[in-house]
Amino acid sequence: MTTALADPTGFRDLLEEELGLRLDADDLDRPLDDFPDWDSVLLLRLVTVVENVSGRRVPVADLLTARTFRELYEAVAGR
C-alpha cells in the first residue's frame, strides 16, 4: 500500500496535494456537505488519483455512499 493510503493522515495529504483541498485532522469526520468546494468532479479526480497511486481500481459505488472524508478513505484503502 502506498504511503498516501497507509493512514488517514496520508490520505488527507493526498487530498491537499492532488485536489487542492485544505483539511485539518478534524475535517476528516465532518460531512462532505460542509465543504462547498467538494463536488462530483473532485470525486472523479480522487478516483483517478487513487487509482494511479495504488495501481488498482477504486470501488466507486462505495465512494458514492460516503458521507465524510474518512469514509472515502476507508473505501479507497479497503477498510
CATH topology: Non-ribosomal Peptide Synthetase Peptidyl Carrier Protein, Chain A
Number of helices: 5
Write down the Rg.
11 Å
CATH domain class: Mainly Alpha
Q: What's the shape?
A: globular
> How do the helices and strands follow one another from N- to C-terminus?
HHHHH
Unreliable stretches covering 5 or more consecutive residues: none
Helix content: 55-70%
The pLDDT mean sits at 91
Largest sheet geometry: none
- The count of β-strands is 0
Describe this structure in words.
It is globular, with a radius of gyration of 11 Å. By secondary structure, the chain is mainly α. The chain contains five helices and no strands. 58% of the residues lie in helices and 0% in strands. It has a single domain, classed as Non-ribosomal Peptide Synthetase Peptidyl Carrier Protein, Chain A (Orthogonal Bundle). The longest helix is centred in the middle third of the chain and has 15 residues. The model has no long low-confidence stretch (mean pLDDT 91).
